[in-house]
Specification:
elongated, Rossmann fold, 51% helix, 4-stranded parallel β-sheet, alpha/beta, 180 residues, 2 domains
Length: 180
């Protein structure tokens, strides 16, 4: 445990972190800044300050699914750098491993993934032509597609990281405010 001596006080770093986590959990769960502040014995302005200091980006909720990808780790890292909230990137071997398991596990995985994607404003899909069309039909929302080839794809495709960065920058940019 890390302690700080400030004058005649001893302050525990973990205690600070625990309080901040609790405040952020309350805010994420829908509490107003005022409600979170009251629940934790701090000023509302402190909660606002925490959110400002910790803000990564504003804008639409973005998800990315991509397979089969040869440079999956690099694609995941690019998504993490831009705070993409949901990332599912698989190489062909990872995909085959999932497909080799029990059918009910695969079916549940697909259903859970589709249910999760319904909560996003933009879903980037990098896959075969058939898979992209199917995802667009199921989600019925903004799907940004990058066709990796004709279905079925059974080999890894290397994603151009510069092209990916440009795409992610475009979809994660703040949404302009509407004029009244």
């Amino acid at each position: 445990m890390r302690f700080y001596r400030i004058g005649d006080k001893i302050v525990a770093r973990e205690k600070l972190v625990d309080q901040i986590d609790a405040i952020m959990v309350d805010r994420e769960s829908g509490a107003t800044q005022h409600d979170a502040a009251s629940a934790h014995g701090v000023d509302r302005s402190f909660v606002s300050w925490l959110e400002t200091v910790g803000e990564v980006r504003r804008g639409r909720r973005v998800a990315l699914i991509a397979f089969p990808v040869g440079n999956a780790g690099e694609v995941r890292a690019a998504c993490e750098e831009r705070a993409v909230e949901f990332v599912l990137v698989m190489s062909q071997s990872e995909r085959e491993s999932l497909e080799a398991g029990p059918a009910d596990r695969m079916f549940n995985f697909v259903l859970e993934t589709l249910a999760t994607l319904k909560d996003f404003d933009v879903v980037i899909v990098m896959a075969s032509d058939w898979r992209i069309g199917t995802v667009e039909k199921i989600l019925g929302r903004e799907v940004v597609a990058r066709d990796l080839g004709h279905s079925p794809l059974r080999h890894d495709i290397t994603i151009d990281l510069t092209e990916l960065a440009d795409l992610l920058d475009a979809v994660t940019a703040p949404v302009p405010a509407k004029e009244h």
